[in-house]
Amino acid sequence: MPVILAIESSCDETSASVCVDGRILSNVIANQTIHEAYGGVVPELASRVHQQNIVPAVQQALLNAKVHKNDIDAVAFTRGPGLLGSLLVGVSFAKAFALARNLPLIDINHMQAHILAHFIADEKPKFPFLCLTVSGGHTQIVLVKDYFDMEIIGQTLDDAAGEAMDKTSKILGLPYPGGPLIDKNARLGNPDAYKFPEPQIPGYDFSFSGLKTAILYFIRDNVAKNPDFIQENIADICASVEKRIATILLNKLKRAAEEYGIQDIALAGGVSANTGLREGLKNLCAEKGWNCFIPKFEYCTDNAAMIAIAGHYKYLQGEFVGQDVSPMARMPF
Ligand code: KG4
Ligand code: ZN
């Protein structure tokens, strides 16, 4: 019955979670609002705020779980990928905590953890399954053969899907992070109002930079004709952009599932909170008779519960790392 303390600090959320025998008992997330003023995450500031938040987040996670620090069996932490300065705070905390209490350390890949978040729920996908992982920095179709045996079969060649959302919102003059605001506005708009191009990329790879340029030129040309164009049409623009991003993602996922003959399909990462994408995947799976796995909202964006559940499975496999471990800004599977 392992008791795992997990730490996540790869970007701008400081999070701590306690997991007992594969059940999540707490998941504390401290968001950093400081970046809003800059229109994006400022790495140096993120690192400093992590330093302020990490101890209170861990204390709160232990309190919420009603677990004493003496009862912890291992410390799991995000090793990468992410911002190096941010990762360093979580990695250093985990190492110090483990050293002081003579506990084993478990290093976790953040992108694998997004996928393993599906094992928090009672209804778990069966191996092998396909996972579309869409976040601010990554867009991947992953063939998940086992907990830590994953193969990326397609990924973005340039911008990530979340980046496309965030950059569109910036063009529209909305504050950072823009993804949730695109979602909110899209609910009131017509997704067929404007047609944006679908890139023709071979295989299961993606490209979003052309779409971003198309949106930029579309807005620029229309604002030149009507200065109030954005204000008057924001809902339709957001709905149309969201629909295009969702169809680009789902068309590739559909083809991958058909060609690999896989029936269990999962969604993961921050963009999996998007209403249009969630609905689109549900409809696709209903139409094809596939089993659909969509994470609860609290497990879509960055959180330590997903690090804890991944840590639980690594603990069972007896896979630990030493005190010489260091963070990795880029970290392959
Ligand atoms: O996984 P995540 O929390 O952090 C990374 O590891 O990158 O993903 C953050 C991304 C951001 O681009 C954010 O705008 C996007 O997820 N996002 C959304 C929504 N919620 C978060 N995009 C569209 N609709 C949403 N509801
Ligand atoms: Zn993430």
UniProtKB/TrEMBL annotation:
> Known EC number(s)?
2.3.1.234
Mind telling me which Gene3D superfamilies this protein's record contains? 3.30.420.40
Instruction: Give the record's GO biological process terms.
Output: tRNA threonylcarbamoyladenosine modification
Sorted alphabetically, which CDD domains does this protein's record hold? ASKHA_NBD_TsaD_bac
Please provide an example of a Pfam family that matches this protein in its UniProt record. Answer: TsaD
Reactions accelerated catalytically: L-threonylcarbamoyladenylate + adenosine(37) in tRNA = N(6)-L-threonylcarbamoyladenosine(37) in tRNA + AMP + H(+)
Binding-site list for substrate: 133-137, 166, 179, 183, 274
Q: Identify the PANTHER family for this entry.
A: TRNA N6-ADENOSINE THREONYLCARBAMOYLTRANSFERASE, TRNA N6-ADENOSINE THREONYLCARBAMOYLTRANSFERASE, MITOCHONDRIAL
Per its record, how is this protein called by name? tRNA N6-adenosine threonylcarbamoyltransferase
Q: Which organism is it from?
A: Mucilaginibacter pedocola
